Amino acid sequence: MKAYLLKRLLQIIPTLLGITFITFVIIQLAPGNPAMLKLQMGKGQAELGNKAFSEQIIQQTKELYGLDKPLPVQYLLWVKRIFTLDFGFSYKDHRKVWEKIAERLPITIQLNIISIFLVYLIAIPCGIYSSTHEGSFADKVLTLGFFFLYSLPSFWVAVLLIMLFGGGDFWDIFPVYGISSIGSESMRVLPWLLDRMWHLALPVVCLTYGGLAYLSRLTRAGMLEVIREDYVRTARAKGLSERVVIFKHAFRNALLPLVTLLAFLLPSMFGGSVIIETIFSVPGMGQLGFEAVLSRDYPVIMAITAISALLTLIGLLISDILYAALDPRIKLE
């Protein structure tokens, strides 16, 4: 086990470097550059007619950001900083990238923890029930309902919820922008928590229903495959109760496909949802990444990509370890 863990940890380094290098190249190939955008957005906009002055501003901006250096040098300098956990300064507002991430990350984590908890709380029992009542009316209703939910695009559901419950055409029950009310920072803990839940209600619904449908169907498929195995029939023949057979023998082995999803939970909790956070004006990581792409904020884009890639690789490692814990037949060596 120790040798396997060491081998996998060593594999993470070249994989992470490869991902960041590809991302760096794609960013550089994208049209536009931070220097020109800075000139257009700043005081230099009025001077665009003066070509010499504009070129001088662009050159000074490139020197300030280090964009005048060759691309391999820029990448190596970035890799050097990343080993000291220094992602540099944002091109957009000259703030430290870590500070911007630290502001947005708690909000995204709150959204994702709530949605992931609801997904697993609802989807797994529904999937188990459908598998143990295969072909029944309840199974058909759940299957049809979950497939219907899975087919709905999140942006359409978000707009529909705003129209229904956000003061659009019907009820004005939930706020549709921000994460807290004005003056919430002076509230006590319980009122603040209720206010935060009130603001996050609609975004959480949009983030939950798709995963709910997928995980439920995945649980059902895994359980149907397992409950037909010989050892499950043997457990029933021994006189064990159906609850023990399902939850102790069948469900444990059906967990293997669900464990695979853990590899994507960590990066999803960090990356957030661009569409949902933008629609509901939630200042999370998804919105930060979207704004960084529009403003060609290379340090922020690279930081988000590097951390997401690292969390994905860590998630894959955790999944492999959990495979061995759930199924002793799997030999990591």
Q: What is the gist of this entry?
A:
With 333 residues, the chain is an all-alpha fold. Helices cover 74% and strands 0% of the residues.
Descriptive account of the structure:
The protein has 333 residues and is mainly α. It is built from 14 helices and no strands. It has helices at residues 2-29, 34-41, 51-65, 71-82, 97-132, 137-150, 154-165, 189-226, 230-237, 242-260, 262-271, 274-279, 285-294, 298-326. The longest helix has 38 residues, at 189-226. The N and C termini lie close together (7 Å). Mean pLDDT is 80; it is low at 43-48.
Largest sheet: none
CATH superfamily of the largest domain: MetI-like
Strand content: under 5%
User: Counting H and I runs of at least 4 residues, what is the number of helices?
Assistant: 14
Provide the CATH architecture of the largest domain.
Orthogonal Bundle
**Shape by Cα distribution:** globular
User: Given this structure, which CATH class of the largest domain is correct?
Assistant: Mainly Alpha
Give the helices and strands as they follow along the chain: HHHHHHHHHHHHHH
Determine Rg (CA atoms, Å): 25 Å
What is the helix fraction of residues, given as a range?
over 70%
How many beta-strand segments?
0
Return the domain count. Answer: 2
Low-confidence stretches at least 5 residues in length (pLDDT < 50)?
43-48
CATH topology-level fold name of the largest domain: MetI-like fold
Average pLDDT across residues? Answer: 80
